[in-house]
Each structure stands twice: as C-alpha cells, then as structure tokens.
Write a structure and sequence with these properties.
Oligomer: single chain
Number of domains: 1
Strand order of the largest sheet: 2-1-3-4-5
Radius of gyration: 14 Å
Distance between the termini: 12 Å
Number of strands: 5
Shape: globular
Number of helices: 6
Structural class: alpha/beta
Order of helices and strands: HEHEHHHEEEH
Helix content: 40-55%
C-alpha cells in the first residue's frame, strides 16, 4: 500500500510531510521503508507535547479552545507541517491511545483525528481504534490512512 503511495507521489511529482503525535512517526516510517522515498518525503516531526506542536506552528488558541485531541488540531498540524517543509501534502495526526494525559484532560480513549492538507483542501478523518495494544492501534491507523491517502492520490 505505501509502495503505491510513493509511486503515485513520484509520478505526480508531489512531496509529503507529516506531523504525528499518537502514531509516533509510524506513517513516516512506512513511507521511508520504500525505496526512493527520499524523493517524496521532505520532513517529519513527532510532536507528543503541546509545546512542540505550538513550536511547529499549531495555534495555541486552537489547542486551548478545542483540545489537543480534536480535528481542529489535526488540521493545524497538517497545514503547519506542509508550510514548514514546503511540501505539497501535509498530514496531521493526533489522538489518545488509552492513556492518562495530565496535560490534556479531555479526549476519548482510542479516538484519533487525522487531516491531510492538499491543494488548499482538508481531508478529515475521525476514527476509533481497537486499543488492545499501542502497537495494534498504530497498525490500524497506518492501514486506514494508507487506503485513504491512496484514494486521494
């Protein structure tokens, strides 16, 4: 699936960047597992903390108003990373994978928010993962996003 994504990005001469939180860089890892990925992925950031989301361009006001676990924050992440890296596509992922978060009291366990920012348009997704383990939850997210990104491309 990610091989197809890299092929399509290369064919269309598009670049991509990710700002990931709960997936811990797993999307970028899947892309960079493919030969020639360096031609399409320009930058990736794992921003677990609110502080570094803000440093990377996410509006503190958005986090305060909607919570870090929201589609609004995922949108900010996608657009910020796209602009920061001068990529064609930005991906923002945030969510709460069955853990207590002393800095962010709101949010449902195993709810994930994703946004792709491409051609001045947001592609937004809200999904709930099984949550049996963090590894399985990440795999579920990676599989879902791979299919959706393939559809967009």
């Amino acid at each position: 699936m990610y091989q197809e994504i890299v092929r399509k990005l290369k064919e269309k001469e598009l670049t991509i960047a990710t700002m990931e939180s709960c997936t811990g860089g797993e999307i970028a890892s899947q892309i960079t597992n493919i030969e020639d990925a360096s031609e399409v992925i320009l930058f990736s950031a794992v921003t677990y903390s609110n502080e570094f989301k803000i440093k990377m361009g996410v509006s503190e006001e958005v986090i305060d108003k909607f919570s870090v676990y929201s589609i609004e924050t995922a949108r900010e992440m996608a657009k910020s990373i796209k602009e920061f890296s001068h990529s064609n596509i930005g991906i923002g992922i945030t969510g709460k994978l069955a853990r207590k978060d002393k800095n962010n009291k709101f949010g449902k366990d195993n709810e994930v928010f994703v946004s792709f920012y491409y051609n001045d348009k947001y592609y937004d997704y809200n999904l709930f993962v099984n949550g049996e383990t963090r590894i399985l939850s990440k795999k579920e997210i990676v599989d879902f996003l791979g299919k959706e990104l393939n559809n967009i491309l």
